[in-house]
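Title: Prediction job returns without error message
Component: structure pipeline
Severity: low
Priority: P3
Assignee: unassigned

Description:
Job completed but the reporter wants confirmation the result is attached to the right record. Sequence as submitted:
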Amino acid sequence: MTLFEQRNNPAMAGKIRTQGNAARFIQLRNCQDLAVSLRIDAYRLQLLVLQPKYNCYSVRKPKGGFRLIEDPQGRLKSVQSRLNDFLQSAYLPLRPECAYGFTRAKSEDDDRTVVGNALQHLGCRYLLNIDLKDFFHQVSDEKIDGVWQSHFRRFDAGLRQLLTGLVCFRQRLPMGAPTSPALSNFASLEMDHHLTEYAHRSCMHYTRYADDLSFSSTEPIGKGEYHDLRNIIGECGFEVNPSKVRWFGDGEAKEITGIELGEECLRLPGNYLGRLAREIERYRAFFELESRYQTGASGKKLKLFEQELRGKLEFARQVLTEDDPVWQKLAESFEQAQFALEDFESVDWLDCPYLY
């Protein structure tokens, strides 16, 4: 393939760009090198560290409780987004086979989505799911400094300190920063290595999608194996969430990251689509009401609701594929819900689907 053909082939161009970004980032030595790569003055980077601006708020988790979101603002978010491009590129050649989520694909066949992760365990007889507690918040600024020292050995102390300040908040990774997902994968490299080795010795198959760890086997997975796995996870600086540890035996319906494992294919949970349809209807009524009165009081909640629905629709699309007629109908309903109808009188204040 000629250089011209490479540049005009999207997949090849993306691969070349990724390799170039990885090489440039690895070669950085000091704060000035970083400033040049990011096209921003070094003193402005220092100011972002000294005065980090985050919008902090809580969102309700699907299964109860709240999740703290720390959303970086303005230039800090822009810098983190550019850093994320470098970090994703640098992580790709280091990525172990077990790692799914928060990572780019190496080829068209390299499916690193929740679907690709679940497919690795399709047809298994026994399954153990382990969830890590407060995944991002367990990655401290000390761990991040260790990432720089282990994988970016040309970085001097000043650059390591600057980068750590740019990507950490309250001395750990913030939930909401563009850089946190990639850095959590870097911080998990040692754990992934040890868990893969243990799984291989124990005739298990291991994958990790973000903070969801899955182990499948043709033989029962007992308390002894779980105890060993928990010790390995703890030694690598992470903590298991005991309330979310789930065992599945032979013949039982199995689930990974919200996806059911059928005999030969993946499925959505039985109530997923019906619940999603009801939520879209709530969103439609809420949107109509806000469009009429334009108070702005619920604009933030409405935006969060929209983002949540988009995420759920995308999840359903990945499992069902976009050719599925049920998914197409739901997607169409959602798009139509975002256009304010002329006849708002059909919406009563008492019917407003307030989000608490």
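Comment from assignee: result matches the submitted record. Strands lie at 54-60, 66-72, 99-100, 126-131, 204-209, 212-217, 246-248, 254-256, 259-261, 266-267.
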